[in-house]
Design goal:
Number of strands: 20
Strand content: 25-35%
Mean pLDDT: 80
Helix content: 25-40%
Radius of gyration: 25 Å
Structural class: alpha+beta
Largest sheet: 7 strands, antiparallel
Number of helices: 11
Distance between the termini: 25 Å
């Protein structure tokens, strides 16, 4: 495209426009961004005002109402001005190596480089206020220590999707000039199943008890007006509603550029996890889900710990029947059949250490992955590719030493999935640790996922490009 600096992966996808690249190839987010940030503070002011009124701190007079309205408008204008200065300073572009550069900062200038060959996930997120004006943000996660992510707020939805496609293509080392790659939907979560799965959890009962305690405390301290404060401040049971809106419309699709996850009712999110970036997979089967044959699937991805401030999420399927979960597992770990992997149970004496779950403890492996199993009331399976093993350690507490037992931890990147073989015979635990370390070394030597698309047959609209070494 004219106006873009040439680079090894071809021209930019963004069309010329107010948020398009300049003559040096640098791009800016959309000019409406400062105003969206300004609007975001108004609901906060409203919540504070309602809280003050219900607690009797503020006087219910027209003057107070005018002051609150004026304060909200003034604060929104102040935030808009500050964000306008930040918008003027924010630029992003792709360098000659095809990596993403972000230049930002008002008082302290910061220039960051995200190495896209280490891309872990790229998301298109549309918060509610941004959706009202047709905007979305792009969140990029790469492997690395410290702050290894970038958030670009805001672009039009079309520009955000195009930028996401371009980032994924550059990560793969291919040209991408014809829009989004086609996809095949693997699974969708019906809203009824999602709601029922949230109700049939042990944590839901705890949320109800916590909500009852909060309501009782509010009424005793503030009277009936305390109920308004509970509603405005948020009762614990509202977590159920938050999860429902977060995972509403959850869809998993497969495409050449990776696994695509879409979800959200109030805030929509379109997440892409490139092939080979999943570090570990966890499958959880709560007690009340077994009758329906449901399971939850989560993943560890480098740079995404789940619930981080980046907004990226580690959920692969919030609820699904076992056959659907196995299909999705086969897509992210091709050739892995969880049922075909032989598992070795824990020794009989482990019953004295874990008398509830001892006969559910097991570990096994095949040529590709390591599998662990634990839990009785809530059953958990963890699957880790050998090449993704970060480290292996053996732990032995006083009780375990008395029984000549030990646990082996197979460390992954931060996330919800813990891969651990609990309460094995001590000599067996040391052997497990050494064998897995050897398997991990061999698997990493054969790993070819850095430029994953270079090893795939190229469709007509994509041409492999070797990229930088």
């Amino acid at each position: 495209m004219s106006g873009s600096t040439p680079d090894p992966l071809g021209g930019s996808l963004l069309r010329p426009g107010r948020s398009g690249p300049d003559a040096q190839g640098r791009r800016k987010v959309h000019p409406v961004t400062p105003f969206v940030h300004g609007l975001r503070v108004i609901p906060v002011v409203v919540v504070i005002a309602v809280s003050l009124f219900t607690r009797g701190v503020a006087h219910r007079t027209p003057a107070w109402g005018a002051a609150i309205v004026g304060g909200a408008i003034g604060l929104a204008l102040l935030v808009t001005v500050v964000q306008y200065v930040a918008w003027r300073r924010l630029t992003y572009w792709f360098d000659d190596d095809g990596d993403l550069r972000v230049d930002s900062g008002v008082l302290v200038r910061q220039q960051r480089r995200l190495q896209l060959s280490r891309l872990q996930a790229v998301d298109v997120v549309a918060p509610l206020l941004a959706r009202l004006v047709g905007m979305a943000e792009v969140r990029v996660e790469v492997a690395g220590s410290g702050d290894s992510k970038a958030v670009l707020q805001y672009l039009t939805r079309a520009e955000a999707d195009e930028l996401r496609n371009e980032i994924v293509a550059r990560s793969a080392g291919v040209r991408h000039d014809s829009g989004e790659a086609p996809e095949q939907v693997l699974a969708t979560v019906p809203p009824g199943d999602l709601l029922l799965s949230l109700v049939l959890r042990g944590t839901t009962a705890l949320l109800l008890l916590a909500t009852a305690a909060v309501v009782a405390a509010a009424v005793m301290t503030a009277g009936p007006a305390g109920l308004v404060f509970v509603v405005v401040g948020g009762a614990p049971i509202f977590t159920l509603f938050s999860e429902f809106t977060k995972y509403y419309g959850f869809t998993v699709a497969r495409a050449q550029d990776g696994l695509r996850l879409r979800r959200g009712l109030l805030q929509t999110q379109h997440q892409t996890v490139p092939p080979g970036r999943v570090q570990a997979v966890g499958l959880t089967e709560p007690l009340l889900w077994r009758r329906r044959g449901w399971v939850r699937v989560e993943i560890n991805v480098a740079g995404i710990a789940g619930g981080t401030d980046s907004g990226s999420d580690s959920m692969l399927l919030p609820v699904a029947p076992w056959p659907v979960a196995r299909v999705v597992l086969g897509q992210i770990l091709p050739g892995v059949d969880l049922d075909a992997i032989p598992l070795t149970p824990a020794p009989q004496r482990a019953r004295r250490r874990a008398f509830v779950q001892w006969n559910r403890l097991a570990v096994g492996h095949d040529a590709q992955v390591l599998v662990t199993r634990r839990g009785r009331l809530t059953r958990r399976w963890a699957v880790m590719p050998h090449a993704r093993t970060q480290s292996v350690r053996v732990t032995q507490g006083p009780w375990q030493r008395a029984l000549d037992l030990a646990s082996v931890w197979f460390d992954s990147t931060p996330g919800p999935v813990r891969v651990v073989a609990l309460h094995r015979a001590a000599f067996e635990a040391r052997g497990l640790a050494q064998d897995q370390a050897d398997r991990a070394t061999r698997a990493r030597a054969a790993d070819r996922t850095t430029r994953w698309a270079a090893n795939l047959p190229a469709p007509p609209d994509r041409e492999p490009h070797p990229g930088p070494p």
